[in-house]
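Let's study a protein:

===
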Amino acid sequence: MSFQAFTQTEPSDHWLEPLVLKEFKNRWYLIGKSEDGQIQRFAFDRILEVEISKVKKKGKGTDFDLREYYNGVFGISNELDQPVEEVELIIGKLKAQYIKSMPFHSSQVVVSEREEGVRVRLQVKINYDFVSEILSHGDEIIVVRPVKLKDAVLERAKNIVRGYLRHE
């Protein structure tokens, strides 16, 4: 398979045993095992060419459970070395009903509801996709814990402000 990531100037070749297709934010991904047994993902819109091989390679087995692999993951990127963490968020009144009806993750539960919004708790890995999702809701979502997530959101928010200040 020939694939060109956004960060590459030239396409690269990959051997992959296809396992499943997964959609995230209107983009489809092919998830499969590489020759060394690593799980990899490739966005369909960046796959340039596919060659079906008739040669069967000896892999490390094809037991793959999509639910298990993505347990605790928001988005498409599963950082295997990252633990699933308990996250607590305060969601402002304007977004509360939306987030309650379209939870971030299946583990999300409402802890309390007040006139000014809701407090939710969920079990997820802290990854780029999750931080980006929180930031996409602006000041309507406040991270209560963990501190690691609060710091990641704060650092990205500071970078946004710096960018705007540079281009006044």
